[in-house]
Write a structure and sequence with these properties.
This protein is α/β, with parallel strands linked by helices and about 280 residues long. The protein contains 12 helices and 9 strands. It has a 7-stranded mixed β-sheet with strand order 4-3-2-5-6-9-7, with helices on both faces. Strands 1-8 form a two-stranded antiparallel sheet. It is elongated, with a radius of gyration of 21 Å.
Length: about 280
Amino acid sequence: MELYDYNTVKRILSSHGFGFSKSLGQNFIIDKDVCPKMADTLNADKTVGVLEIGPGIGVLTAELCKRAGKVAAVELDKRLFPVLEETLKEFSNFELVEGDALKLDLNSLISDSFGGFSRIKICANLPYYITSPIIMKLLESRLPAEEIVVMVQKEAAQRLCAEVGTRESGAVTVAVNYYAKAEMLFEVDKSRFYPQPKIDSAVIKLSPREKPPVEIADEKRFFAIVKAAFSQRRKTALNCLSGGLGISKESVASALSEIGVSGQARAESFSLEEFARLSEIL
């Protein structure tokens, strides 16, 4: 089945009475170059199980099935089930899992779906509106995955892959770097999607770390401090931390001084190590 052909895709969706949902951020890849290239980045073979988040109409899923031993795809929109049944009918190594990836126990899902596989990888074309929540769920769950390859909004990709301590960094940059190494793989023009979104995308790879690069006694406190520090990017970290955490400016200023950071510094200039030391002091 030629899933890269616009007319074929339109016909299949129409035959199932499918209409795109703006609330679910549905933009499906229909390009003959992008999906194979994205699937190839996983370097998957028949010994690998791939968990996919949001298969859409199955264009990327088909490429994953050709390479991996098994593909289990989590899909929230039940209207796509009969579509996927048609587009992926030739693949016996495909499993469709109904549910919301943000709510499912992904560790249990991997255990149930990939019992015979020792190597697991994750792949997804993520809706823009849930990019950060999904990525953080995947990382915070500490899944037994070798790598995570996802397509996201280009601007989000730049933020996720930025170096901590640079102007492009944000709270999510710090969080991602705590759990994994992030790498930009390639950009994807908006014209490669149906329907066409307003912005370009990019594919990134996250390689989970065996252990975080800094030692943290209280992760919840650490991330609360990071979130507060970046809460208002135009303000100094001193003001953001004081207001966001309900701590006096004097206490925050003292903590900043102890780690050798100016009270006028903004969160984007902090290193991962400085955030870690700050969380211990505060």
